[in-house]
Amino acid sequence: MRLNLYISKTGVASRRGADSLIEHGRIKVNGVTAVLGMQITKNDVVTLDNNIIEPLEEKFYILLNKPVGIVSTTNTAISGNMITFMNFKEKIFPVGRLDKDSHGLILLTNDGSIVNKILRVENGHDKEYHVTLNKPYDDYFIETMTSGVEIYNPVAHEKQMTMPSILKPLDERTFSLTIRQGLNRQIRRMADSLGYRVESLERVRIMHLTLGDLPVGYWRYLTSDELKELNDKINH
């Protein structure tokens, strides 16, 4: 990499400004005063006025349409882990989880500052799912799912009531469910407690972020508009 490009990535100066710093002898590479046009490697130590400077970390915000069978973990020792599946060049991690048997939208990033802001229940950020059951549901099921269901929370080792949700029927066995919690296998446990089994569970939306026409197994970067709206919502 050209030295002036490296310096610009540290945020201390533009490429032209970096050339000026080099011309004035303020930049050293491995303790030796740098010259214009130098090429450096990742192993070289660059200093400005004898203080080490390093590139700022580039932030990545990725939307993946996760297939069934992929595990929401960064542990590459686990078969079907998300990191091996993504094969992304930089270190990233999922924001929240989507269980192995479910598919749909999951956000990945290397920006740890946004994770709790998105996931914390008190921030009230919607997550929408399309759920298909093993049999037709009735009005009692709709009423109970929307008002709250008592389920076992294996993390807290106790039973608890789920928060109110929004249910919109799609057909006799399928519905859209919008929740603000993220308890372990929450929707499956809610349905099971009412005598139903979830046959298909797809997350289609997190806040304003949607799958759109993104095929299963594919990913894309968030657009600048999506990222701006995300920052506006989590930093309000």
Automatic annotation (TrEMBL):
Protein name from the UniProt record: Pseudouridine synthase
Listed PROSITE patterns: PSI_RSU, S4
Enzyme class, UniProt record, top EC level: isomerase
Family the UniProt entry places it in: Belongs to the pseudouridine synthase RsuA family.
CDD domains: S4
Species annotation: Acholeplasma laidlawii
Listed EC numbers: 5.4.99.-
InterPro entries: PsdUridine_s_RsuA/RluB/E/F_cat, PsdUridine_synth_cat_dom_sf, PsdUridine_synth_RsuA/RluA, PsdUridine_synth_RsuA/RluB/E/F, PsdUridine_synth_RsuA/RluB_CS, RsuA_PseudoU_synthase, S4_RNA-bd, S4_RNA-bd_sf
PANTHER family given in the database record: PSEUDOURIDINE SYNTHASE FAMILY PROTEIN-RELATED, RNA-BINDING S4 DOMAIN-CONTAINING PROTEIN
Domain (RNA-binding S4): residue spans on this chain: 1-62
